[in-house]
Description:
Layout: H1 15-19, E1 30-31, E2 34-35, E3 41-42, H2 43-55, H3 61-77, E4 87-88, H4 102-117, H5 121-135, H6 142-158, H7 163-177, E5 196-197, H8 202-214, H9 218-234, E6 236-237, E7 240-241, E8 249-250, H10 262-279, H11 282-296, E9 306-307, E10 312-313, E11 316-318, E12 321-323, H12 328-340
Antiparallel strand pairs: 1-2, 3-4, 5-8, 6-7, 9-10, 11-12
Helix pairs in contact: 2-3, 2-4, 2-12, 3-5, 4-5, 4-6, 6-7, 6-8, 7-8, 8-9, 8-10, 10-11, 10-12, 11-12
Amino acid sequence: MTATLGPPVIAPTFTHLARLSDDTGLFEHARHGVVRRGHGYCTDDVARGLVVTAREPEPSVTVAGLTERYLGFLTHAQGADGAFHNRLGYDRRWRDEPGLGDWWGRALWGLGTAAARSAAPWIREEAMIAFRQGASLRSPAPRAMAFAGLGAAEVLRGDPGDPAAGGLLADAARAVLGASTTYPLMDLDWFWPEDRLTYANAALAEVVIAAGRHGGDPELLTVGLRMLGWLREIQTREGRLSVVPAQGWRRHGPRPGHDQQPIEVAALADACVAAADATGDPGWEAEIRRCVDWFLGDNDAGVPMWDPGTGGGYDGLTPDGPNLNQGAESTLAFVATLQHARRWS
């Protein structure tokens, strides 16, 4: 399948990701391209880092080294019961207790991806041990469950009968949609299970798509695809991608255009890959290309959302153009989205 041509696609670059990393993990923040060590590390970003490095089919020595460090960080962050710390200071001291917030879900996403896709057998084995330990838990937060469910979906790619992953994925979809089978908030004007769009929204649709596909439930798959289609429609402005900003959009409320976050674009790209794989519909391939093009300059400001000099992704799209800081979340969003461009390269 092919997608509509846009700006020339570049290959994923791990230069800035390596700059943001040390022998412990991945620093969260940067001022422009310079690491801000005083802000320390967080499991959220290290887990995202493991997702993108483990996705590389033929990792360079640099990328393989990052995968090892990120896996080591996550196994160190995991408590005896399977929950995870989130924040580690530059002094290598944890600032919190293990918990089941978004970072737990993202840690399982990273571990599940490494267990399914890493080029190194020992990485796959170690990641699977940590994944199983965390997959026995459940979070009360729907987004944390969605991220964990995406890790479970990765495990099921390699082992469709894995009971721990299958149970977690099914529970994640239920957490997103709620107990009702009528989905009362999901009407033609607002086909979404929450009354507000916040962050990484497309991940919720993606986990429902994955649960429907892996669980052999065509109705659930249809619901997930409809959620994603609705999200695609409301994030389109004059034919280009214009994503939910940091302050979110509320049902029946105003829909501000800024500040748009790269994580929204990356989450949409990931979900559209899942939809394309589940349906074979070339329309989803075109949407992936729109996500790539957003970073390359086809956005509301008409400016690239990355720095060719550093390889870093800019932290947000403001009314005045890019926020030139290049932290871990935005750089990982840029790299993750470019990885999907291999589908038509």
